[in-house]
Design a protein that fits this description.
Helix content is about 15%, strand content about 45%. It is mainly beta. The strands form two sheets. It has a five-stranded antiparallel β-sheet with strand order 6-5-2-1-7, with no helix packed on it. InterPro entries: DUF3247.
Length: about 100
């Protein structure tokens, strides 16, 4: 995954929304994540993501967070997701 997120966020409202999603992503939690585009990914949270500062391709600074989910059926396959693109998180158990 690129180190440049597709979107960065600067408003307090957006940052609070990302922080609220991060709280739902405990280490080793099994989750079903739905992205803004409707894509659904299931996996085990490798480590709770953290809100970080990034620059977009124009050099503007903002925030986002990267989530690593280890695939449920093939744990050696990681899925990297930008938390700012997450619409819904559903807990489906613990590892």
């Amino acid at each position: 995954m690129s180190q440049t997120p597709p979107r960065i966020f600067t408003s307090r409202e957006d940052l609070v929304a990302i922080e609220q999603r991060i709280v739902l992503l405990d280490d080793e939690a099994r989750v079903r994540v739905t992205l803004d585009d409707g894509t659904v990914v299931q996996g085990t949270v490798s480590a709770r993501p953290t809100l970080e500062v990034f620059r977009n391709s124009d050099g503007d600074e903002g925030h986002n967070a990267r989530l690593r989910l280890d695939d449920l059926e093939h744990p050696e396959i990681p899925h990297y997701i930008w938390v700012g693109d997450v619409r819904d998180i559903e807990a489906i158990g613990m590892a």
